[in-house]
Design a protein that fits this description.
CATH superfamily of chain A: Aldolase class I
Shape of chain A: globular
Strand order of the largest sheet of chain B: 3-4-14-9-10-13
Radius of gyration of chain B: 20 Å
Order of helices and strands of chain B: EEHHEHEHEHEHHEHEHHEHEHEEHEHHEH
Structural class of chain B: alpha/beta
Largest sheet of chain A: 9 strands, parallel
Shape of chain B: globular
Oligomer: heterodimer
CATH class of chain A: Alpha Beta
């Protein structure tokens, strides 16, 4: 977990929000997946979030649903996604957060899932279908194996509950920008800024990253200016990989990373 | 300490954070309304004057004689408005939605029975209704799509995943996550996150309460067996629940489909393993990596890769027993009931009936079996006639 906290702190020391780059594991296929993840890290993503493909991803919009289906059809399994993470970590020094729906982890066996994730170099896990109420026994297993558990906050989460989430989350809290699923959006919704401000005023010291719908450097700049410690880009990167080239991906990542640096003058 | 909403090790609320406040609000509203005299009167009135309750308990004399064993009674949920037990829950929840001030209702449907029931309830109560239905199901059940549209519902065909019920639920959940502040999600079975399995069970328990009184009146005693089909399991939990504390054997019959390998059936309890789908920890049909499997059943209403968590609990405690019956046996039961009693059962309860027909001859003539005839079979005519043609059976079974 240290390495994850340090990545956020390094970004802060260069007056920037940390760039958390999401990519579906095993997408577009197993070999290319490693190249894609490596490119994200080489071009300056501070944290890589790798999604374990699942057949029924209820928190995801069409882009990540389709990427998951493609990855599964190319033979992605939790085990070989973790192997790819291990290979990535041997090539580049970048912290990795694993995003997985709970069923995949249960089927794998929670303890073994945690052990294998840790030994493949994963720092923390995000379960999009694990709310605070059901956290206890699952977090115990993850933390017992040295993995952090990152929780999510939503625009409809009330203050009293948001505090509990911010306090219970390891390393950082993932703030969901809208009520809705993942997917590209044309602008940063008001609800994202409101949620970010609420979180920052409730717990000024907690690290928060904003995600869902973040699609352009302008979005990144705005969220960074508003005080986000991290910004997550997912669907946008996935659709570049689906429709574009690795060079386009590299260009976007560089540009996005630069947008997260806060300027000296307001 | 365990969070609320668990049946032993099963159930829970495994959903995105955005839905948690909504589930909490739903539970609070439900608990409040459940105790409200006015709400109960309103629902009871609708069930009697609109849905057609109480439904009769019918002694299937000819079938009983033909099988030469236990007496078989049928709980006639097929006689309800819409032709299935689904209206019990749809009316209850639509009323709940209205009391919560939600004007927009969404629902999922597989075969279309729950979609039709929800469209009816929303029309009757003046609510806006959108129904998600897998593209494959919409094609297989075109008549129900038309019925829903006539009833004023918007039907959205879902093209993701396997394009069947589970994907329709995924899409309904995604809609709910997006429109959570304005929308009521009217879930059609005793599945999903807490409090849905409890709410749906409570609204369906009217079946068992009536049935218990009726069988006591007809036989002067409790039945020996209560048998119901299980997809998600709402008609079964509805008829089982009022008998839980009685010395009555409860048997849930799942869809054995056309084979025992994954993808050829929909028998989550009999052949599945533990996992999480649609917000509940329960039995699911999945591959070795935790990907949800395709399912098959001749009865579209049983074609679902998971099951209500309370059934998982009843299986684990041994209070209920679960078995699987093949497509073929269900089809045979359908035709048999048509010939002997002049009743076309839906292919879903035809599974329960098929098991009862196997069991009855092994019992004594004074034993009593009740089968929940949860829906009528007009919707399945084409399937059944097609099977009869392929069998070359024509007239003779």
């Amino acid at each position: 977990m240290r390495e994850l906290e340090e990545a956020f702190d390094r970004a802060r020391s260069r007056r920037a929000a940390a760039f958390v780059a999401y990519m579906t594991g095993g997408f577009p296929d197993r070999e290319t997946s490693l190249q894609v993840l490596t490119a994200l890290a080489e071009e300056g993503a501070d944290v890589i979030e790798v999604g374990v493909p699942f057949s029924d991803p209820i928190a995801d919009g069409v882009t990540i649903q389709e990427a998951s289906q493609i990855a599964l059809s190319k033979g992605a399994t939790p085990r070989n996604v973790l192997e790819t993470v291990a290979r990535l970590r041997r090539k580049v020094d970048v912290p990795v957060v694993l995003m997985s729906y709970l069923n995949v982890a249960f089927r794998y066996g929670l303890q073994r899932f945690a052990e294998d994730a840790r030994s493949c170099g994963v720092s923390a896990v995000i379960f999009p279908d694990l709310p605070l109420e059901e956290l206890g026994p699952i977090a115990e297993v993850m933390r017992g194996r040295g993995l952090g558990v990152v929780l999510l906050g939503s625009p409809v989460t009330r203050d009293e509950r948001l505090v509990r989430i911010l306090d219970a989350s390891d390393c950082f809290t993932y703030l969901v920008s809208v009520t809705g699923v993942t997917g590209e959006r044309s602008e940063v919704p008001r609800s994202a800024i409101d949620l970010l401000r609420r979180a920052k005023s409730l717990r000024p010291k907690s690290r928060v990253a904003v995600g869902f719908g973040v699609s352009s450097p302008e979005h990144g700049a705005l969220l960074s200016r508003e005080g986000a410690d991290g910004v997550v880009v997912g669907s946008k990167l996935v659709s570049i990989v689906r429709r574009g080239t690795l060079d386009e991906l590299r260009d976007f990542v560089r540009e996005f990373r630069n947008s997260l640096v806060r300027s000296h003058t307001p | 300490m365990k969070a609320k909403g668990w049946f032993g090790r099963f159930g829970g609320r495994f959903v995105p954070e955005t839905l948690m406040e909504a589930l909490e609000e739903l539970e609070q509203s439900y608990l409040r309304l459940k105790e409200s005299e006015e709400f109960r009167r309103e629902l009871d009135h609708l069930l009697r004057t609109y849905a057609g309750r109480p439904t009769p308990l019918y002694f299937a004399r000819n079938l009983t004689r033909m099988l030469g064993g236990a007496k078989i009674y049928l709980k006639r949920e097929d006689l309800l408005h819409g032709g299935a037990h689904k209206i019990n829950n749809a009316l209850g929840q639509a009323l709940l939605a209205r009391h919560m001030g939600r004007r927009r209702v969404i629902a999922e449907t597989g075969a279309g029975q729950h979609g039709v029931a929800t469209a009816m309830a929303c029309a009757a109560l003046g609510l806006e209704c959108r129904v998600y239905m897998g593209e494959l199901d919409a094609r297989r059940q075109a008549a129900n799509v038309m019925r829903m549209r006539l009833l004023g519902a918007e039907v959205v065909e879902v093209r993701s995943g396997t394009r069947t019920l589970k994907d329709a639920i995924n899409e309904a959940i995604r809609d709910w996550v997006t429109n959570v502040q304005t929308t009521y999600y009217l879930l059609g079975s005793c599945v999903g996150p807490h409090p849905y399995p409890t709410i749906v069970r409570d609204f369906q328990s009217v079946i068992g309460r009536e049935c218990r009184e009726q069988v006591l009146e007809a036989e002067g005693r409790l039945p020996d067996y209560v048998i119901a089909c299980v997809g998600g399991g709402s008609n079964a939990i509805g008829i089982f629940h009022p008998f839980l504390d009685d010395p009555v054997r409860l048997i849930g019959v799942e869809a054995g489909g056309r084979g025992e390998s994954l993808g050829e059936h929909a028998a989550s309890l009999v052949r599945g393993s533990e996992g999480v789908l649609h917000g509940a920890y329960t039995y699911v049909l999945q591959d070795e990596h935790g990907q949800i499997a395709d399912t098959w059943s001749i009865a579209p209403g049983l074609d679902y890769p998971a099951v209500g968590p309370e059934h998982a609990y009843l299986k684990e405690t041994g209070r209920a027993q679960y078995v699987a019956v093949s497509d073929e046996a269900a089809l045979r039961a359908y035709v048999t009931l048509a010939r002997t009693e002049g009743i076309l059962p839906a292919l879903e309860p035809a599974h329960a009936l098929a098991y009862a027909m196997e069991l009855a001859p092994t019992l004594r003539p004074d034993d009593v079996i009740v089968v929940n005839l949860s829906g009528r079979g007009d919707k399945d005519l084409e399937t059944v006639l097609g099977w009869l043609r392929d069998e070359g059976a024509g007239g003779g079974i």
